[in-house]
């Protein structure tokens, strides 16, 4: 054996160095394996996800994979925040719609109940309430239409990280 001519202390030192080498090799292998896995998870249309992954010698470019992964995570975070904002807008519109429906239902109920003003008074109030309700519904429809346009614009626009971060005020 190689350790036969060494003292016990030196033999222990050699074993410790050999064990550290094995541990370090396993650590490097795990890191490289996870970087390769990240490279397979990147979408094909991402910058740095296809031909740039392989260097001139045909090996995987780890730096490009890591950069592409960071960019992709940033893109996903932005998309999540935009989806949350859209969900909040949809919920607000649903609440507003429910409120308007309740108001219309209560107005109709009031108009159908007998009134001391008589038929002419009831007809006048019905006409005024209908005008108010039509105006509110028209405003609501316009707001929905503008939100749909904004949502379509967001979907159709190719967001770049720099411009989006400037818009959101992030650094």
From TrEMBL:
Sequence ranges assigned to domain BHLH in this UniProt record: 15-76
Membrane-spanning intervals of the chain: none
Cellular compartments per GO CC: nucleus
InterPro entries per record: bHLH_dom, HLH_DNA-bd_sf
Database matches in SUPFAM superfamilies: HLH, helix-loop-helix DNA-binding domain
Keyword Nucleus among record annotations: yes
A GO MF label: protein dimerization activity
Keywords: DNA-binding, Nucleus, Transcription, Transcription regulation
Keyword Nucleotide-binding in annotation: no
Source organism, top-level taxon: Eukaryota
Compartments where located: Nucleus
Sequence similarity: Belongs to the MiT/TFE family.
Protein's recorded name: BHLH domain-containing protein
Annotated organism of origin: Anopheles coluzzii (African malaria mosquito)
């Amino acid at each position: 054996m190689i350790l036969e001519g060494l003292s016990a202390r030196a033999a222990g030192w050699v074993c410790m160095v050999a064990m550290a080498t094995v541990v370090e090799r396993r650590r490097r292998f795990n890191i490289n394996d996870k970087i390769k896995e990240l490279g397979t998870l990147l979408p094909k249309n991402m910058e740095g996800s296809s031909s740039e992954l392989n260097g001139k010698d045909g090996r995987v470019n780890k730096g490009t994979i890591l950069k592409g992964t960071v960019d992709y995570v940033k893109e996903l975070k932005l998309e999540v925040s935009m989806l949350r904002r859209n969900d909040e807008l949809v919920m607000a519109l649903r609440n507003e719609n429910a409120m308007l429906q309740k108001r219309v239902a209560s107005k109709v109920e009031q108009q159908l109940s007998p009134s001391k003003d008589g038929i002419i008074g009831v007809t006048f109030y019905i006409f005024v309430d209908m005008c108010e309700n039509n105006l509110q519904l028209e405003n609501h429809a316009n707001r929905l239409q503008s939100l749909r346009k904004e949502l379509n614009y967001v979907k159709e626009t190719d967001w770049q990280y720099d411009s989006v971060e400037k818009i959101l005020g992030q650094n």
